[in-house]
Amino acid sequence: MITPLTLDSIGHAPKALLHDHLDGGLRPATVLELAEANGYDELPAIGVDELAAWFRTAAHSGSLVRYLEPFAHTVGVMQTPEALHRVAYECVEDLAADNVVYAEIRFAPELHIDRGLSAARSREIAELAIRFRDKGVVGFDIAGAEAGYPPTRHLDAFEYMRSNNARFTIHAGEAFGLPSIQEAIAFCGADRLGHGVRIVDDIAIGADGTAQLGRLASLLRDKRIPFEMCPSSNVQTGAVGSIAEHPFDRLARLRFRVTVNTDNRLMSDTTMSQEMLRLVEAFGYGWSDLERFTINAMKSAFIPFDERLAIIDDVIKPRFAVLVG
Ligand SMILES: [Zn+2]
């Protein structure tokens, strides 16, 4: 018997997450408690519910630059080793409770040095990623406002990663168009794209409904470049108008390697299961679709091939088989 697709049943499905920010996934209560413990007095609300609502509203801004503003408060309470440990621990607890069986969590060391912890900029962060590569760090990324900050500004860091046979992803094609995707792939050599939604600008739809891919879109599909798509976040930043208008479905039907991600669970008030459900409601996906997106993500993970294969064969496929019936 096929299990109906609901938030609860999707919650039981195994999920793989490639794009989730540590400073965007705190529990509201933890933000309050860490603020109190560390003397941070700039929070915009004093109650858990009020604070949760404030983050949601502030992030739903329609612009990437304004979407990033609430991070001042989460980063503001993450300035001690104890606070970082707690946030990381709770992140894993929350993802495990949602049956996320594999996750890559992004973390920007240079944002957490206000109180004496030390780190520096992109090249130095890349060096940290390599130094800790066998201790849980699997890759490297740049994120933030895109307009005026092309990925090639960090070319030095990407070249360092490549020279160390290491892999990385780049936020591109979210707030800014095709040029940022072109730079990320052609000049920086990104293995994956954070968001990448603007690739639809390189896909023309003919009068008969057939899609005509431009050179860049073709290259990304041919190379099986993974797209780390974050539906709710993309709506909040104004990258797309609504979930129903999200290019996820068009790209999925054209067999681009699309994956489903949360981006910032606190700001988007979401979980992996919620993101999956929103796509199911908008596009009518079934279990086999969700399984494909999950396997897409696991194939695209930065851990070694044999470990990816083991999670796909031993965890994802058997557990989906039960749900599909
Ligand atoms: Zn992101």
How would you describe this protein?
By secondary structure, the protein is of the alpha/beta class. The chain has helices at residues 7-12, 28-38, 48-59, 64-67, 71-76, 81-97, 122-131, 155-163, 178-187, 215-222, 231-236, 248-253, 272-283, 287-299, 305-324, and strands spanning 15-21, 100-106, 140-142, 168-172, 192-195, 203-205, 211-213, 227-229, 258-260. The strands form three sheets. It has a five-stranded parallel sheet. A two-stranded parallel ribbon has the order 1-2. A hairpin with a 5-residue loop joins strand 6 and strand 7. The chain binds zinc ion. Zinc ion binds next to strand 1.
Alpha carbon gyration radius: 19 Å
- Structural class assignment: alpha/beta
Number of E strands: 9
Beginning-to-end CA distance, first to last residue: 5 Å
**What are the bound molecules?**
zinc ion
- How are strands sequenced across the largest beta sheet? 3-4-5-8-9
Number of helices: 15
Shape: globular
Residue ranges: pLDDT <50 for 5 or more in a row? Answer: none
Helix content: 40-55%
Q: Helix and strand string, N-terminal first?
A: HEHHHHHEHEHEHEEEHEHHEHHH
> What share of residues are in beta strands?
5-15%
Biggest β-sheet description: 5 strands, parallel
* pLDDT averaged residue by residue: 93
